[in-house]
Design a protein that fits this description.
The chain is mainly alpha-helical. It contains 11 helices and no strands. Homodimer.
Length: 256
């Protein structure tokens, strides 16, 4: 700021008196800005009085969120609360004490998508998003498992209707459309990202099963048998193999 001739001062009070002096209004105050890397020209600006500076709102003018949209977001989030409190039925059916919730399951899947190495043709950020929404309809319909005897087609219809209701509560728009798209992509196994997240769904389940076996001294063969041979990706297969190897090692130690 050493290049500011008329505006330089020894104290803030002196500068304020200069800026508020009526005799200097409309007098240009030129100073040097850093050189532009393209044209290397000097720029000039006109000093403004404090009164002429535009008032800035606490909220950016670019953000025009209405009360109704804010209300819709909170209503949607409140509905999602049940994802945190609804326990995964597979563990409940096996009398696991303090079983994980739907949200617990989805969160660790999202972490898997976050830490997985870069893979050709795979958008990791999209994987994270898919993981976070793939079971979101269970906020309304709950965790429907094979033991419930609900046909796959009927389960999908129930979850689609629930998702439509949730997106209506959210107020529609771009974010609701994105949630619908991500959910459908996963449901149809329609992309490389969906393939990987489908594998994460199974990997997370057998990892949780191993943890419950260790914690509760149980044998939960059902979860390992139901996923055997169903992994689609190399990552899914290798992570599952590591979990199974650790399980086999633990079981072997118990026998000895």
């Amino acid at each position: 700021m050493a290049a500011v001739k008329p505006c330089s001062s020894s104290s803030p009070h002196t500068l304020y008196r200069y800026l508020t002096n009526p005799q200097r209004i409309h007098r240009p105050c030129l100073f040097k800005l850093p050189f532009n890397s393209r044209d290397r020209k000097l720029r000039s600006v006109r000093c403004q009085t404090p009164e002429s500076e535009p008032k800035r709102s606490a909220v950016s003018s670019d953000v025009t969120e209405t009360t109704s949209s804010c209300s819709s977001c909170i209503d949607f989030l409140t509905l999602c609360h049940s994802l945190k409190t609804t326990k995964r039925k597979g563990w409940v059916n096996h009398d696991i004490k303090g079983p994980e919730s739907i949200a617990d399951h989805m969160y660790r899947m999202a972490i898997m998508a976050l830490i997985v190495g870069d893979l050709p043709g795979i958008n990791r950020e999209r994987c994270i998003k898919i993981a976070l929404v793939h079971d979101i309809a269970e906020a309304i319909v709950g965790d429907i498992t094979p033991s419930d005897g609900v046909p796959k087609v009927e389960k999908t219809k129930l979850e689609q209707a629930a998702l439509n209701e949730m997106c209506n509560i959210l107020g529609g728009g771009m974010r609701a459309a994105e949630i619908q798209e991500l959910w459908r992509e996963y449901e149809d196994n329609a992309s490389l990202e969906a393939n990987l997240v489908k594998d994460f769904d199974k990997v997370e389940m057998i990892l949780q099963a191993l943890e419950y076996e260790t914690e509760h001294d149980r044998v939960l063969d059902e979860f390992f048998l139901s996923t055997a041979g169903k992994f689609q990706t190399d990552i899914g297969k290798s992570w599952a193999a590591e979990i199974i190897a650790r399980r086999n090692s633990r079981l072997a130690k118990k026998l000895n």
